[in-house]
Amino acid sequence: MTLTLEIKPFVPDPSILRHPTLPKALSGCAPRVIKGKEWWDKERRAAYRESGYRCAACGADPNEANFLPRPIEAHECYDIDYLKHVAVHVRTVGLCGACHAFIHIGRSRHALSTRQLKRVLKRGMSLLRSVKVLPHWEHELLYEVVIRDKLAHKVRSRLLKEGRYRQEHFFSRFGEWTLVIGEERFTIFGGGQYVRENNGTDERGDG
Q1: Which residue has the higher pLDDT, 78 or 7?
Q2: Residues 120-126: contacts with CB within 8 Å, 24+ apart?
Q3: CA angle 53, 131, 6 (to 5 degrees)
Q4: Nearest to 85 by CA among 141, 24, 160
Q5: E strands along the chain, which residues?
Q6: Which whole-number Å values give the CA distances from 73 to 15, 52, 64, 76, 98, in the listed order?
Q7: 179: burial class by Cβ within 10 Å (0-12, 13-18, 19+)?
Q8: What is the DSSP string of 151-174?
Q9: What would the pLDDT profile of 127-183 be if each residue is shown by its tens digit?
Q10: Which residues, in sequence order, are CB contacts of 100 under 8 Å at separation 6+?
């Protein structure tokens, strides 16, 4: 009897681009920082293999297929509850430079030229439309302002009426947060400071 191993082809998932920006309170306390280099190397390499060393969002070869050619970059994905101040690390994916720049649009608007920023925004929004997924409000706000020359306060007002922009998104950047990585929970104080619960004791860290 011959056993046949079925290998499922990799299918890119543009909905990854809807991922919100991590709250500023968690800055400096990403899983890659808290868990250390050995964990992170294993995590990111597994993500690269899973997508065949192509971009998990668009399927492109990161070194060749877009205007920001870079080696594949790892991105941590989260399930974020802004009201409860809880962020759960759900997976890590490999992304091309353009897709990664779109997700981190707040950072990209300062790091990229105006021309590059416009291309990143147009490309990312097009990918999301291709799978009929609404962008995160931060991406739509910047797209409307930069690409369509709309007034920011009017766009924000529309998103507020649609229920896509909420005040807790702003206020959630302050105060303590809980970060969940696998079975571990960390209390994040901001500024790279955190406490890990470890067998009933607190283990403090400085990211």
Answers
A1: 78
A2: 120/68, 121/146, 121/147, 122/147, 123/66, 123/98, 124/17, 124/98, 124/99
A3: 45
A4: 24
A5: 73-81, 86-95, 177-181, 184-190, 193-198, 201-206
A6: 17, 13, 14, 10, 10
A7: buried
A8: -HHHHHHHHHHTTSS-HHHHHTTS
A9: 999 999 999 988 999 999 999 999 998 998 998 888 887 655 655 555 688 999 999
A10: 73, 75
Tell me the backbone φ, ψ of residue 170, rounded to 5 degrees: -80, -50
The tokens for 65 are: 């297929």
Instruction: Compute and round to an integer the Cα radius of gyration of the chain.
Output: 19
- Helices 114-130 and 137-146: crossing angle in degrees, nearest 10, is 130
Pairwise CA distance, residues 187 & 181, whole Å:
11
| Segment holding 106, helix H or strand E | helix 105-111
pLDDT in tens, 47-82: 999 999 999 999 998 877 667 778 899 999 999 888
What size, in residues, is the chain?
207
Q: Which residues of 77-95 are buried (b: 16+ CB within 10 A; e: fewer)?
A: bbebebeebebebeebbbb
How far is the C-alpha of 140 from the C-alpha of 26, rounded, in Å?
23
